[in-house]
Amino acid sequence: MISTDIDTLVIGGGVVGMSIAYGLSKAGERVLVLDEGDDAFRAARGNFGLVWVQGKGEERPDYARWSMASVLRWSSFAQELTAANGIDLELQQIGGLQFFLDEDELRAYVRKLENLRAAVGDYPFEVLDPVALKQLSPHIGPEVVGAVYGPRDGHVSPLRLLRSLVQRFHTLGGILRNGVRCEQIVHRADRFHVQAGGKEYVAGKLVLAAGLGNRTLGPMVGLHAPVAPNRGQVLVTERMQPFLRHPSGHVRQTGEGVVQIGDSKEDVGFDDRTSIDQLAHIAHRARKYFPLLDGANVVRTWGALRVMTPDGFPIYEESRQCPGAFLVTCHSGITLAAMHAGPLADWIRGAAEPAAISTFKAERFHVQVHADGQ
């Protein structure tokens, strides 16, 4: 069976793929999303939910600008989705905190942010001593030597976001096929022929947003995606009385009252299991930040794989060998969702490439790739 009534075919139904698909369908395109299924390595299901600027892009200011632009668009992006679906995304953008237990680490982090501000310009942050931090976050522990407050940082429910994107995509006429694994892509006569799940799909444009799967799919259309997994583990407590208004990169309290604790970074290949030693380390650090967590019941844990390039920054690229094929790879799909649904989708539709992403090509890794993958 051949399906040809498609303008753009998106491979990957996580937050990255669905944000792009939503943006394309909102602009009037006929969009089909193919999603591999629950046995795939899904970054979206393990996401911490941060909408974050602080600390991003020290070695590449364009990334700081791109993240900042997305964060500034997030409020209207969320309002638009909620108005259409009635789904509260639990977005809070009242600022975020990075906590420190060591004075030297705090000073080094502040120097990093000062360098970013010098490079980017509009980059607000405030260094808080223990007294000022206590006023903002009364339950902070005595071992915390200070924090940095980023007024533009925040958090959102990643699962509610994904649900909202899918629901709105459907109402706009988009089609999502779940449990379909892409097996082969051929570019012929300005069309992309995709073999997946025993069917052939044909479209004028193709977007690869398959996370770690992009490594295999990219070379089929002359694109290079040197991505590798990086595991993060998360602890989730029982519901607690609200005590933490401002999220951090290590601890956040959700709208439901549960506390998520995480931010481990482990190079363990495609192993997305949890480990007792790493979970114990995460819990120990969290108790130092907030002693009231001592004794809280942990109700679940999970491990998930981030999608990481060698330098940690995204790849946004259109294939030179197969024009109309785009590769989108990043590990900050929540923060960047507003840009993916807006300017990035516009670029895929034919608008000028956003200046901030012009340096995010795979050629920076100095690898030549041919359409046959050799």
From TrEMBL:
Primary enzyme class: oxidoreductase
Domain called FAD dependent oxidoreductase: residue spans: 7-347
EC number: 1.-.-.-
Keywords per UniProt: Oxidoreductase
Gene3D superfamilies cross-referenced by the UniProt entry: D-Amino Acid Oxidase, subunit A, domain 2, FAD/NAD(P)-binding domain
Pfam families, sorted: DAO (PF01266)
Gene Ontology molecular-function annotations: oxidoreductase activity
Signal peptide (from-to): none
PANTHER family for the chain: SARCOSINE DEHYDROGENASE-RELATED
Name under which the protein is recorded: FAD-binding oxidoreductase
